Amino acid sequence: MKKTLSTLLALSLGLCAHAQITFQKHIRVGIKAGVNASVFSKDVEPFDPHIPGYYDTFQNWARFSGHGGVTFDYHVTDRLSIGAELLYSGRGMSYREENDEAIIYTEDGEQQAYNYFNYKIDYMELPVTVHYNVLSPATNLRLGIYGGFARGVALHKRTKLIFPEADGYDKPENEQNELMYVRNFSTSVIGGLKVSGKSLKTNPFADIRASQMINPVFNRKSAPNGGNLDTRMFTLSLAVGVQF
User: Residue 200: what pLDDT?
Assistant: First the structure.
């Protein structure tokens, strides 16, 4: 009996060790951080040119923000893998107008100053992707072409009017307000390229990604004054990270 129990115990420990090795071999956990550049597909209120009194002195720009979180990669084969991430990601839109009252001096001379009106919408996102390694499995690098979907929940929704800092300029207070009618849940289609190591214990990686929101940013098509709110959002992201 004791011999049987010892055999079973040894077998169980062996199976657990094998499972752990298999897990470590196929699944890699990582962290990543990077920058986003986001734009709306259509002008929205109060920049919609189809409404009276729209802000015609502002021009389209992009909201530059950051993202970061954890990554999980499951390697099915040397070429095929499945990825999942949990990211905090800043998105939105920005408009800017020239501010001729503020003069910014640089080493190259005077620089144009701008006022910025930002739509700041920050999401917690869960991207799920399928990757295909286009490089030979014999190399120590992976170049993954990938695509998938990301589900997100809006955490912070606000607008902010930002004035420049300049010597001799009586800068007004920046204005911040709650952004209304933002859809709480969003779905985006994503695609990109990811370069990573393959055989090291800690592998650095770099990632470039494009994301297009499928559903509208706002949960209604127009504001109370008739201004447009029917817009999607496109985001280009660059990130670096490390896998363990």
Answer: 73
